[in-house]
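Here comes my example:
=====
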Amino acid sequence: MSETPRGASRSAMLVAACRLLAAELPPEQRLINDPFASLVCDEEAIAHARADEPLQLVIRMRTKYIDDAVLAFCAEHPGAQVLLLGAGYDARPYRLALLATFYEVDFAATLELREAVYAPAMVATPRVAVPVDLANEAFDAPLIAAGFDPLAPTIVVWEGVINYLSAEAAEAVVDALGRFLAAGSTVIADYVEMNFFRDTQFERTATDLKQRLVQGGERLRGGLPDALGSLDRAGFDVIDDEAAELLPPRYGLPLAPRCYAGRLFTAVRRND
């Protein structure tokens, strides 16, 4: 691609490249399968992903964790809603066979590009595009106007987004989810554990990655300074919270040393 318009995310390409490279691993290490990743990666993204094996592991763990949660939720709630907050190049509507309706929230430019690149991948899963800039706009009213049912069982996938939002914008998203999601609905997201990350060797080793993202028009921000506290105040019970590199034993793989500050949580809306 010769140009990166707003919403055509370099980080999303890098993540997709990590999913693509998983196919080169032995089956017992692969854990995920994204045959559509090649549609959204350029050679630069693939080269950067190939040079960063720890990031590949983190993305495989993150993808597997979220896949399993979405599959389990939709098996328990046939016809559920899957809300992709920051849809980017998330291929789950294409690669997971689900009885669900996907609501895809992102920049208008990203949604248009997403539609174009995935056009060859025909899928019967219902999908509804909801153009919203999460950094600057409320998403709940446009989402409901697009047909989202606040009373229906919903799983929210908020993947690779929180760290690109200001604390104020990220808190606004959590508050909105707390207001309109039905009890029992689930939120799956990743976030940066800032106390682990700031002023450490991990921050220094991430300098190159941060610079590449800035060059692609993106900048890492603070996100949620107290993710678990924010969720509790909004009416969610956190039932899981783990660093991505500590997930491998759940899937029969050896424990990996921590190299990134990313964590994943699963939170369920309380019946207040």
